[in-house]
Amino acid sequence: MSRPLRIIQFASICSNLGDNANIRGLRWLIRTTFPDREIVFSDWDIVDYSWGQAYSEADIDFVNTHDLLIVGGGGFFEILPNTSSWTGTRFNIPEALFRKIKIPILFHGIGTHRVRADLSGDDVGPQIDRFGHFLNELMTRDDVLLAFRNDGSRQVLRRTLGDAVADRVTVVADAGMYTHIPETSPWPGLPHPDGLGGRPLIALNFGGDLLEARFPSDAPAYRHSGAGRWDHPGDYEKPKVVDHAGFMRFVGGISDVLRAWLDANPEMGAVFVPHIYRDVQMGAALLTELGFPYNRRRVTMAPYLYGFDGHDYIMDLYRRCDCVVGMRFHANVSPVGLGVPTIGLATFPMLRGFYDEIGCLDRIVDPNSPDAMTVLHDRLTETVRDSDLIRSRYRSIRKDCEETSRRFVARIADLVRM
After folding, report:
1. Closest to 145 in 3D by CA, of 30, 50, 223
2. Alpha carbon distance 176, 151 (integer Å)
3. CA dihedral 80, 347, 17, 77 (to 10 degrees)
4. What integer best gives the mean pLDDT of the chain?
5. What is the DSSP letter of 227?
6. Which backbone phi and psi does 170 adopt, to 5 degrees?
7. Cβ(132)–Cβ(86) under 8 Å?
8. Which of 13, 21, 87, 248 sits CB 3.0–4.6 Å from 134 for a disulfide?
9. Max intra-chain CA distance, the chain
10. What is the pTM for the complete model shown?
11. Would you give the DSSP letter of residue 363?
C-alpha cells in the first residue's frame, strides 16, 4: 500500500470566507481526481506573515517534509505600488528561502490585478519588471505547474507583460466554484434562525475594503424610474455608519431598490452576508438606511464568521438562497458553482472578468452607472422569474469549468511522480 501523498497549501487559511471556499474546492477537486490515493493536507497560513511574523528556515524545512506545495488560490500576483517585494507582487516569500524549497510547486488559480497600483497613480514599472522575471522563471521550471484564475488575469497580463506572456499561460476556474461542504459539517440540514429561513431569500454582500476604488467620489448620481417608487418611508435620525460619500450614495440607492422590491414581493426576505470583518459595517449601513419596518421584519444580517466552520455555515446559507447579489469575488463564484442565481455588483475588474470568461456578462450590474439601480430592480425581478433557467445555465458552466480544472489538476501525477 502506497504512503499518503502529503500536500502543504500556502493560502489565506483563516481570514476571508472566500479563501476558505477556494481551499475547500481545490482539495475536493484533487481528492476526487485521485480517488484511490490517500491525500493528507497541511495548512500554511499567509495571514500570519501579514502581522509581523517573519518567514524562517524552519518554515521551509517543514515545507520540504511534504511531497507538494500548493500556492493559492487567490490574488497572490497582485502588482503592488511602493513594494520592495522581489516578485513585484503580493507573493513575497524571501527569495533566498524560496529557492530552498526542494519539492514541486503548484500555483493554482492565481489572480493578478493592479487595482491598488492603478489607484495610487504611481509608476510600477520596476515592479512589473520584477514580476516578469519571476513569472518567466516559473513558466520554464519543470517542477512548477502554474495556472491563473478566470477573473480577467490573462487580460491584465496582456496589458502588463504583453501578448507573448498572456498567450502562454493556463487559465482555470477559481476553485471556489467547487466549494465543498463536508458531510461531517454540522450545518447542512439544520434550521436557520428566524429571518434566515422559512421563506424565499435574497442574499447580499458588499465589499468593505478599497472603497475609493469601488465607489469613486466622482461617480454620477443615480437615475430612478417610477414616480414615488424610491421615496424613503419616513424621516428618522440615521447614524453615520460608513464615512464615505461614494458608498453612502450606493447604499442609499440599493436601499431604495430593496424597499420597492420587497414591497412588491411580500413573501420574500433578504439577508446581508459579511465575508470579512470590514463587511459588517457595510451591512449595518444598509440596515440603517433601509429603516423600519424593513430592518426589523424583512432584512437581517448573517453572523460574521471565519475559518472552515464559518465557511460551511455561510456557503450552506448561500445554497439555500433564491438569489445572491454579491460584490465580493467569492460571493459570486461560489454561488455560481452551487447553482444559485447571482447578480454581480462589479466594482472591481476581477468580477467583471469572471462573468466575461464564463459568458455571463448579462448577470452583472455596474454600481457606478447612473442607471444601476433601475437595472438592478429589473434584474432582481427577472432572476426570480427565470430562476430555473439560470440554475440550469450555471450547472452547465460548472460542468465545463470542472472538466478543464480536472485535466490541469491531473498533471499533479507527473509533477510528484505518483
Report:
1. 30
2. 12
3. -20
4. 92
5. T
6. -90, 140
7. no
8. 87
9. 73
10. 0.94
11. G
